[in-house]
């Protein structure tokens, strides 16, 4: 027999891969691999997201909209991004139009509320806050007839209480609130408030975005218009009424904001008509309407608003014929006359003696700014202001027949007024707010940001639900951290096991050298 015949059984017995220690280590290794794969698969599988919901109704002067917002449950304090999930346009006019039959205001909201009941999962209804905020239409109605305004709000409240959501109240917002919440909305959606980004959307090693310059907000409604921005030259002292101070995610903001009641585009049109009908004409040739446009207007309807009622000319006939002349330069002249730029008791003013610090940073212009400029194909603010004016002049000079023919699907009440509205927007921005040919390009006409409408409603809800903390959260969220630690631990265990296995043949017990 060869020496190897005697050695082989000995060698087999001493094979390190067959010893109990090796088997135990291998089993631990296999368990670690299986656990690691299981954790990764479980963590990354598509789990149905659980959401919380909030509803805000924007009761504007021209109409009411309902917005449903949602955000991942358990994350509202820091990283859960709130998004618009659904919106509903209430049929009919704004609630302030129901002053003579308030119950109809409540009634008008029901269809959208029923839609909201379908959209929000039933089990969440009772925890879903529902708010209604009214804006300039109701501000005007309060000035005109405060008991009618209260009756409308009561009727609306009664109607909303009849639904299964957690009703939180209906109130008329002050102009400053409308401006400030619009500013919060666009800066929140644009992630400019230094808020932590949701996990997955966060660049590595980054939890907070500090010190970003914010975007100013320009909101043009039907009855009022708001301008809000942060200015290094404004600490509130020169005009405390225009100051709103916030602490959001650990950053302090001193916001300048002003709301011009009666300078929304519908009321501004009344101001322009009032200016042109002071002599009580039977026929008005209006440069802000297309040539060939002709409509009969009631004096009482034009002057039926606190913005113009005191200026109704004595001895006016019942109605007048409103004819278009389509002249941009003349129209601008009319519009300039509705801004009082002659008196200013502050260091600087926008118009009507209202303080305004120097414009600063970029601006987002939404609501009617967007509707009108989008229709006119003029949302591109890299176009020189002179080109925009030339385009407007060309558009205004188009005949009414031609305009109707080119846009058969557009509502006539909007179509007839786009020449006025576009001219008003450019004049408000330049003559009113002092945007120059250069700073005009810092404006962006926007409708939505990341799928959510620009407007005051989201900022209002974030504020009332305390969803924007004053201080930034200190630590990244636990589940992600837990997941990362677990994976790291398992990788470490695996590495140790593999190392032990690799070194196994060198252990004294398992060495293949014949022992002496
Ligand atoms: N597609 C459109 N084209 C032109 N104008 C429009 C369009 N849609 C809405 N508008 C008008 O734009 C204006 C602004 O609308 P928005 O809904 O923002 O105002 P509101 O909330 O009713 O007014 P306020 O905020 O002053 O109470 C209104 O005059 C409205 O009639």
Automatic annotation (TrEMBL):
The chain crosses the membrane at residues 20-42, 414-435, 483-503. It catalyses: CTP + H2O = CDP + phosphate + H(+); ATP + 2 H2O = AMP + 2 phosphate + 2 H(+); GTP + 2 H2O = GMP + 2 phosphate + 2 H(+); CTP + 2 H2O = CMP + 2 phosphate + 2 H(+). InterPro entries: GDA1_CD39_NTPase. The active site is at 178 (proton acceptor). Its EC number is 3.6.1.5. Its main location: membrane. It is an enzyme of class 3 (hydrolase). GO terms for molecular function: apyrase activity; ATP binding; GDP phosphatase activity; ribonucleoside triphosphate phosphatase activity; UDP phosphatase activity. GO terms for biological process: nucleoside diphosphate catabolic process. GO terms for cellular component: caveola. Catalyzes the hydrolysis of both di- and triphosphate nucleotides (NDPs and NTPs) and hydrolyze NTPs to nucleotide monophosphates (NMPs) in two distinct successive phosphate-releasing steps, with NDPs as intermediates and participates in the regulation of extracellular levels of nucleotides. By hydrolyzing proinflammatory ATP and platelet-activating ADP to AMP, it blocks platelet aggregation and supports blood flow. PANTHER family: ADENOSINE/GUANOSINE DIPHOSPHATASE (PTHR11782), ECTONUCLEOSIDE TRIPHOSPHATE DIPHOSPHOHYDROLASE 1 (PTHR11782:SF32). This is Ectonucleoside triphosphate diphosphohydrolase 1. It comes from Tetraodon nigroviridis (Spotted green pufferfish). The lineage of its organism: Eukaryota, Metazoa, Chordata, Craniata, Vertebrata.
């Amino acid at each position: 027999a060869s020496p190897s015949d005697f050695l082989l059984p000995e060698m087999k017995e001493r094979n390190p891969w067959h010893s109990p220690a090796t088997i135990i280590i291998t089993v631990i290794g296999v368990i670690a691999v299986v656990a690691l794969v299981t954790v990764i698969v479980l963590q990354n599988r598509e789990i149905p997201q659980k959401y919380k919901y909030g509803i805000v109704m924007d009761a504007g002067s021209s109409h009411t909209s309902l917005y449903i917002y949602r955000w991942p449950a358990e994350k509202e304090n820091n990283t859960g991004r709130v998004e618009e999930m659904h919106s509903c346009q209430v049929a009919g006019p704004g609630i302030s139009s129901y002053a003579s039959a308030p119950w109809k205001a409540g009634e008008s909201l029901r269809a959208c509320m029923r839609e909201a009941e379908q959209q929000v999962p039933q089990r969440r209804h009772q925890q879903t806050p529902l708010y209604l905020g009214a804006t300039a239409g109701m501000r005007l109605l309060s000035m005109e007839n405060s008991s009618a305004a209260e009756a409308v709000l009561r009727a609306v409240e009664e109607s909303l209480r009849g639904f299964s959501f957690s009703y939180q109240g209906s109130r008329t917002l002050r102009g400053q609130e409308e401006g400030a919440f619009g500013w919060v909305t666009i800066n929140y959606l644009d992630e400019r408030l230094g808020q932590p980004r949701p996990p997955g959307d966060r660049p590595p090693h980054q939890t907070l975005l500090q010190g970003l310059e914010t975007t100013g907000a320009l909101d043009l409604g039907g009855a009022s218009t708001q301008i809000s921005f942060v200015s290094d030259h404004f600490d509130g002292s020169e005009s405390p009424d225009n100051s709103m101070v916030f602490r959001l995610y650990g950053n302090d903001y001193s916001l300048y904001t002003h709301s011009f009641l009666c300078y929304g585009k519908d009321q501004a049109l009344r101001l322009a008509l009032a200016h042109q009908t002071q002599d009580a004409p039977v026929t008005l040739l209006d440069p802000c309407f297309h040539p060939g446009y002709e409509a009969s207007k009631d004096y009482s309807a034009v002057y039926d608003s606190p913005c113009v009622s005191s200026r109704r000319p004595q001895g006016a006939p019942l109605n007048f014929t409103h004819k278009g002349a389509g002249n941009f330069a003349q129209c601008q002249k009319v519009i300039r006359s509705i801004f009082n730029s002659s008196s200013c008791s502050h260091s600087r003013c926008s118009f009507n003696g209202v303080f305004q610090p120097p414009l600063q940073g970029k601006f987002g212009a939404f609501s009617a700014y967007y509707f009108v400029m989008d229709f006119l194909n003029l949302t591109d603010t890299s176009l020189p202001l002179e080109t925009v004016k030339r385009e407007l002049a060309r558009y205004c000079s188009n005949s009414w027949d031609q305009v109707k023919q080119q846009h058969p699907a557009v509502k006539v009440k909007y179509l007839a007024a786009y020449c006025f509205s576009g001219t008003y927007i450019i004049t408000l921005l330049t003559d009113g707010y002092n945007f120059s040919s250069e700073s005009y390009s810092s404006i962006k006409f926007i409708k939505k940001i990341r799928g959510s409408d620009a407007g005051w409603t989201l900022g209002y809800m974030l504020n009332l639900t305390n969803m924007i903390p004053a201080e930034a959260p200190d630590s990244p969220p636990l589940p992600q951290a837990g997941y990362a630690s677990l994976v790291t631990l398992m990788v470490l265990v695996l590495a140790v096991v593999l190392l032990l296995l690799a070194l196994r043949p060198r252990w004294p017990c398992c060495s293949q050298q014949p022992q002496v």
